[in-house]
Structure formats: structure tokens, C-alpha cells
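This section describes the prediction task in plain terms. A model, or a person checking by hand, is given the sequence of a single protein chain and must write out its three-dimensional structure as a string of C-alpha cells. No templates, partner chains or ligands are provided. The sample shown here is typical of the held-out split.
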Amino acid sequence: MAKTVTLRLDDATYAFFRDCAQADNRTLSNMIETAAKRHLERVSVDPEERREILRDAPLLRRIRAGARDAKSRRGRMIG
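The expected answer:
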């Protein structure tokens, strides 16, 4: 069953979504829902992959160390 969600948008963001929705001949709510789903599909980690990462203690130590180094601006970015 569909749920209703209240969403607060600034004027510029609202206008952007409204214009995109009109260009695609969609409702505003459908445009926002579709955009959110597409974004999450691109950035989300598969649940099984997430479990594997969380079980890998050496990997988690390296990730934490890297995060600390980045926060303190140690090291260099390799692109």
C-alpha cells in the first residue's frame, strides 16, 4: 500500500523537480519518487556485500585508518 510522505523543498529545488516532471509528463510526486529510487539504486551496497564488509575485521581497520588519515589530511589522493 502506498504511503504519503511530507517533504520540504526550497523554492529552487521545487521548481527544478516541477520542471523535470512537466518535461516528462509526470506528476511531481512520481518524479521525486523515481529520482530517489534511481539514486539509491546507484549508491546502495547490496545487503550481502554489506554483511561481508562488516565481517572483515582487517578491512574495517583499514577503512577506519583511511578515514582518520583523510580527516587529518594525511597522505595524498591518488586519482
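For orientation: The two ends are 45 Å apart (CA to CA).
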